[in-house]
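Can't paste images in this forum, so I'm doing it all in text. The chain is below; anyone willing to post the predicted structure tokens underneath?
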Amino acid sequence: MSDPKRDSRASPLKDAQETVEAIYRGDIDAVVVMRGLEGPQVVLLHGAEEPYRVLVEQMSDGALTAGPNGVILYVNDRLCELTGHLSAELVGRHFATLFEGEPPPLSSHVAVQASLSRNGGDAMPVAVSPRPIAIGETEAILVRLTDLSIHRRAEQIAAAERFARSVLEQATEAVVVLAPDGRITHASWRAEQLAERPPVGRTFSEAFPLVAEDSEGAGILARFSADSLDTMLATRPFHGVDVRLRGERHAQSAYLLNAGPLFDDNLANVGSIVTLIDMTERKRVEERQTMMVAELNHRVKNILAIVQAVATQTMRSSRSLEDFTDAFTGRLKALAIAHDILTKTRWIGVGLGELLAAVLAPYRSRDEARLRIEGPPLLLPVRAVTPLSMALHEMATNAVKYGALSNRRGAIEISWQMSDGANPSVELVWRESGGPKVKVRAVEGFGTKLISQVIGHDLGGKAAIDLDAAGARVTLTFPLEAHAAGSGAAGA
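Text version of the structure:
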């Protein structure tokens, strides 16, 4: 005879088992009511629009129904996909065997993360959400398993996107990311400033119309149409091409174009990174450097030509090696003085008073009254400094040898004035007095020739030299503007 209490306990469990099997076969319909007066329940409804089995099957997450003892009673197709097992292989197993490591508790009322085992694959991170349900009078557990790898991948992608955006926002150069079809997907702040219109969504050639800076770049760009250039930039390495951007806004700017392909984890090309590096200031520096080198080369040639001429003429006019050494050394010092002054002023010109003070410094004594210099402020152009320094040195040398500086009583007065007008000129007068009686030589010396040559040829002016009993008087007149014939020595 059967025990009625035992039969009453077994009957609900048997009924629940039969109900679950009927639901699984689709023989009866049900909907899940998460909250009722007596807690979450499964209420059986014959003829419902959506059977319980269909609801569970249509879930995007994996789902299973387990009994109070944790034995799996039912699984949906999505859980089979996640685990790589057939439903027949899962039904009847214990819930804990689905996981690696510590299994999540079925008694939890909140989602718990766990590692779901996969047939022939790595474990998958999932969120396990168990909820108690009632099937008839028997309790069961509905467990939902959400694939977190998708969410984590989405988070990684979002983090990578944020990182890429922050890099682009901090970039000081124009940087854009191209899709394989040549359209811009990302652009730095600088790139957005360069483009006439928002660049994202447009092709590179539309956003940045290029003009080659040199013949090499022109040859490279000429081989591509706009479409093929976009494709090439998106798929091939491209480095070091000098370009400009069309439009008046960028007329004075120069850029260096570079492109490098981007690859995904499978080494498939997914686009490229293209940069436009602003080379404007560098180009200007290079141009200035080129001009300076050319100017330096020009000056060195002029100096060598002057030294050679001075050496040749000094040799011809010297009576002995000692005379040659003294004269030649003095004239080289005059050149050195001029170049020292120009170097200190960075070749922007020298004041006439400053040049006179430097040239005559070796001949000054405590008695400054012997040398009087007066005249208005006057900035000499660079081209005039070396020739005038040479001429003044010759005049001072002659004064020491034959004129006012050859005794203790002589004096020299130097004055100048500048004429007004469209083409101003300078008149410098050198007057000697108190020296020995001047003897007029029949043959003009090299010093006199040098003065006439540098003033006439190099400065486009003239030198008037008068020798009388009172002392030498030299008048130098030359224009301040550049002189075509003297342009060769202007830089010396």
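The chain has 15 helices and 21 strands. Confidence is low (pLDDT under 50) at residues 28-50, 483-492.
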